[in-house]
Design a protein that fits this description.
This protein has an eight-stranded mixed sheet with strand order 3-2-1-4-5-6-7-8, sandwiched between helices. It has eleven helices and eight strands. With about 280 residues, the protein is α/β, with parallel strands linked by helices. Helix 1 links the parallel strand 1 and strand 2.
């Protein structure tokens, strides 16, 4: 079951180190602060911080501190995967037996992290997605054998600040997770693009077609989010026998349609995730 993003972080103890404050790292940072985490407990390591991150220093966030801060309660690694070989070894100075390391790097396995960090480090690997920027993301997490109940709760709390959280036991599932929810927002955005172009082809002015497509996708997603009814039933409720929706769905659900294309697309993304992981 998903964990809803209702937890407060005001009682977080120790230091939280964020390594990498790009789009996803910054989204998490905003979520933590919004959930009541004391800025003075946060250290950000980011060679090229944007203005918004620099401004947080005035609130107490430590940005690229020169002095040693000691062992952290938790370290969140949000750098690009290709930067990992250089970014991980220096983190040893912040790690002791009580430290949680939470990685959101795509494709970097727990095995890779264990080889790059001190022996015995408690590690959680997670895959969030871009709706995290508005607190509506979903993250899937998997842990190594060193994780305690406290570490697990701590990881859940940190991830829940940007959306819902699911846990899996088998790390091999993370490739499919990456393909479905990690890459999934791009599929939805493409749907909106294609609907707008189809509207123009049907004779609508481009601006109107774009507005209709975007609002329809956003509104339908919100209806699905709020409803207790599953997606298939919601689709059926919109479809009158012999009507316009039925005519469209006959094409979309026919041979080579939506189902087949998305299955192929997610399979391709899953295989690519495995390739990137080595």
């Amino acid at each position: 079951m998903a964990i809803r993003n209702v937890r407060r972080l005001g009682e977080f103890r120790g230091t939280l180190v964020l390594v990498g404050a790009g789009k996803m790292g910054s989204a998490m940072l905003d979520g933590w602060l919004g959930r009541g985490l004391d800025p003075k407990k946060i250290t950000v390591i980011e060679p090229q911080p944007v203005k918004a991150v620099k401004a947080l220093a005035r609130r107490g966030v430590k940005l690229n501190p020169k002095n040693k801060i000691g062992a952290a309660s938790a370290i969140v690694i949000a750098v690009k995967p290709q930067s990992a070989p250089e970014a991980l070894p220096p983190l040893a100075r912040y790690i002791d037996k009580a430290t949680l390391v939470l990685s959101i790097m795509a494709g970097r396995t727990i095995g890779f992290l264990e080889k790059s960090l001190p022996a015995g480090t408690a590690i959680v690997r997670a895959m969030p997605n871009t709706p995290a920027a508005i607190g509506r993301g979903i993250s899937v997490a998997v842990a190594n054998a060193k994780i305690s109940k406290r570490h697990r709760k701590q990881a859940s709390d940190l991830l829940a600040a940007i959306g819902k959280v699911e846990w899996v036991l088998d790390e091999a599932l993370m490739d499919a997770v990456t393909a479905l929810s990690g890459s999934g927002p791009a599929y939805i955005f493409l749907l909106a693009e294609c609907m707008a172009r189809a509207g123009v082809a049907a004779g609508l002015p481009p601006d109107l077609a774009t507005r209709l497509a975007c609002e329809t996708v956003a509104g339908s997603a919100e209806l699905l989010h709020r409803s207790d009814i599953d997606a298939a039933t919601l689709r059926q409720n919109v479809t009158s026998p012999g009507g316009t929706t039925a005519a469209a769905l006959e094409v979309l659900m026919g041979p080579g349609g939506f189902d087949q294309l998305l299955t192929q697309a997610i399979d391709a993304a899953t295989r690519r995730s495995r390739d990137l992981a080595g």
